[in-house]
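Listing S7. Sequence submitted for prediction.
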Amino acid sequence: MDLTPFREKIDALDQQIVELLNQRLAVAAEIGKAKRGSGGQIYVAEREDAVFRKVTGLNQGPIKDDALRAIYREIMSAAIALEQPLLIAYLGPEATNSHQAALKKFGASVNYHAFSTFADIFTAVEKGEADYGIIPIENSTEGSVRDALDQFVGSDLKIVAQLYLEISYTLISKSPLEKITKVYSKDQALAQCRMWLQRHLPHAQLIDTASTARSVQIARDEEGAAGVAPEIAATHYGVPVVAKGIQDKANNTTRFFVIGKKPSGPVGNGRDMTSLLISLGDEDAANSGALLKMLKPLADRGINLSKIESRPSKRRAWDYYFFLDVAGHHDDPAMREAITELKQFCTMVKWLGSYPVAG
């Protein structure tokens, strides 16, 4: 079969694509220049969401929407790099789930820096050492990442975007399965693989580490040790994979927040989510029906509650904060009215951010 005519056609199309991409990036560079002059944000979550919806709406195949989104992610990453270099903080070291989430959200053209704790990520963004941070906030198997949630209590940073990452874990070790006596990983990762580990390594000691990638570093250097981490970590650190897909749930997914100094604008059309942090105070919290009273200003205005979680305030015994995710943007009139009413009887109503629903 002579493929020459097809290849010539592809070559011609590639030339057009490259020319159009460079034209698009040149316009993006002009936008960046205008943003810098006016002090505008380089990364705009609501604009990103609009672009993704526009291009997938134009798509008539055969390319799938997910593939088209991945292509445009890298196009926008290259555009951001031309507008202004960005530094993204994530929970490291390299090859963690947070690292993968950061790459999925911001692409390969921006700069990244690994930090060892959630507090370090928040501090880096607050001090301007990083433009944005990305943190895991909840997992579909194990629930909320509480250490990450707690950081919002004392921080003025805003949630500007969210994304979801499907999580798959591998057992990584230089030793065969029957000779593994210790399994290292982040507490959340060990919990998400609990049943598999009990079934296949019932006598192994499970040891918490600062990150999944750190567990692979230990497994690389310690005989009889294994790490639980994404498969990319095995490749990155040069340690063999003993078993793949060891997470207990097939649809294991983690939700991540992008945090920054300036809030995101509204997307509209029911595509915004708002996160709030509320404290009832000692007197109200002790009263019967206090929680119902807190939710009533939202319910009265038809604002849908998608998540509520309590966390100890750590100020005194039995004192709690409530984290809420509700549908809508902070600037919506109904949302502003509800927040105003909440402030009349709650000791604290803190807006954590509004952001596009789609991740």
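Caption to Listing S7: primary sequence and predicted structure tokens for the chain studied. The mean pLDDT is 92. Residues 14-32+44-166 form a domain with the D-Maltodextrin-Binding Protein; domain 2 fold (CATH 3.40.190.10).
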